[in-house]
Design goal:
The chain contains seven helices and eight strands. The protein is of the alpha+beta class. The protein has a six-stranded mixed sheet. Strands 7-8 form a two-stranded antiparallel sheet.
């Protein structure tokens, strides 16, 4: 058994907000030996298979990251990058109006991408709201236990020590629930604030429209990519959680180079 697998087996699992979920009893692997999921004994709930990508070993515990959080963070990165690129296209047109035709072609692609992201955003928001509703139900259930314990204490059915223990445990659960609710609301707020207006709030109000595109320009999007031998100006790429981060610094003194770069983007998108 590899050291990686030994890191999981027998460890207690809790979610990233501190709630205990169970203990790792084994794992399911792919044909190449890579871990697909981890089996967690959740007591009376039974054995649950948790996706490996949602788990993180931290000291004596395995931390479970909810799927909604991974999906929301990915969407935030994608939307932010798409909006920044649209803004960059607007800035290019502002600096060199001769490139407007080429920029509009690239803009069409990013407009379609933004529309797809906004559809995904609706789905994510529905999942976030569903989770908030679930947490609200859990919160009411925990508060009912706490209230009943207080009632038992006041009627001398349990000692003060027992009541204090119940109070500590239930308040911890409520704290975990409130932490997750706060993070969900924070993600929803971030998504709502990610707009082109906010991205471009400090730049001139330049709008690129596609209404004036000719049929010939539109048909260029369907043509085979042309071979480009010109190097793109200062394109810096880095892989971060499968998301491509690209920073482009156009050379204002060489419009021909900029035009070749835009054509290259049109061909490769």
């Amino acid at each position: 058994m590899s050291e990686l697998r030994l890191e999981f087996v027998g460890k207690q699992v809790k979610d990233m907000y501190g709630t205990f979920m169970g203990k790792v009893v084994g794992m399911v692997t792919d044909s190449d030996g890579s871990i697909e999921s981890v089996g967690v004994d959740c007591g009376s709930v039974g054995l649950k298979q948790l996706a490996y990508e949602q788990l993180l070993v931290q000291g004596d515990y395995v931390i479970y990251i909810p799927r909604w959080r991974l999906d929301a963070q990915k969407l935030l990165r994608q939307k932010n990058l798409t909006l920044k690129r649209i803004k960059a296209l607007q800035d290019i047109v502002t600096e060199n109006d001769l490139m407007k035709g080429d920029a509009e072609l690239v803009y069409i692609k990013y407009e379609k991408r933004l529309h797809a992201i906004e559809e995904d955003e609706k789905s994510i928001n529905e999942k976030l709201q569903t989770r908030l509703n679930e947490l609200e139900v859990e919160s009411k259930s925990v508060k009912a236990v706490l209230f009943d314990a207080k009632l038992q204490y006041r009627s001398n059915e349990v000692t003060e020590e027992i009541y204090q223990q119940i109070s500590i445990y239930t308040n911890e659960l409520l704290e975990h629930i409130n932490l997750e609710k706060a993070e969900i609301n924070n993600v929803k707020a971030k998504l709502s604030k990610q707009t082109l207006e906010n991205i471009a709030s400090t730049t001139p109000n330049i709008t690129i429209t596609t209404q004036g595109l000719t049929n010939a320009a539109e048909s260029n999007l369907q043509q085979e990519p042309a071979t480009q031998n010109v190097m793109a100006p200062q394109i810096v790429a880095a892989n971060a959680s499968t998301e491509e981060k690209v920073a482009v610094t156009p050379d204002n003194n060489n419009s021909e180079t900029e035009t070749n770069w835009l054509n290259q983007v049109i061909s490769n998108e």
